[in-house]
Amino acid sequence: MKIYLVHLIRSRRIIENPADLSLLENLERQGIQHEYQCRSGYCGSCRVRLKKGRVSYPQPPLAFLQEDEILPCCCRLESDLEIDL
After folding, report:
1. SS3 category, 26
2. Which portions of this protein are annotated as coiled-coil regions (predicted)?
3. Which of 14, 43, 56, 80 has CB atoms 3.0–4.6 Å from 38's, for a disulfide?
4. Three-state DSSP class for 50?
5. pLDDT value for 1
6. Could you tell me the pLDDT band of residue 2, with boundaries at 50, 70 and 90?
7. Under 8 Å between Cβ of 38 and 59
8. Would you say the C-alpha torsion 18, 22, 25, 26 has a positive or negative sign?
9. Alpha helices in the chain (DSSP H)
10. Where are the domains of the chain?
11. Where are the beta strands (DSSP E) in 19-73?
């Protein structure tokens, strides 16, 4: 299974994220709390700024996103990431 590295800029941490887990699921497993509501890309309350890297979505999210934002609740990593968290 592919493992990606996620650099959390504000927390000054680097965590490993298995490709088969959403970023939010992995943050929770690591004991890192992050705001969320829907877990399906509908509300956008979990959005974070993506500084580097790529993600994909199994289903296109309904929440409006800027080009540099991602939804941890439903994204899947496609590369190592650097996020403003």
Report:
1. helix
2. none
3. 43
4. strand
5. 84
6. very high
7. no
8. positive
9. 23-29
10. 3-83
11. 48-52, 55-56, 69-70
Q: 3-83 sits in which CATH class?
A: alpha beta
14 forms bridges with which residues in the sheet? 7
pLDDT tens digits for range 32-75: 999 999 999 999 999 999 999 999 999 999 999 999 999 999 99
* pTM (2 d.p.): 0.93
DSSP annotation of 64: -
Asked whether the CA dihedral 38, 44, 47, 50 is positive or negative, the reply is: positive
Reading the block at residue 20, the tokens are 């088969």
**Helix, strand, coil share of the chain (percent; to 5):** 10, 30, 60
Q: Name the token pair of 39.
A: 């877990």
Q: State the Cα torsion 60-73-21-50 to the nearest 10°.
A: 80
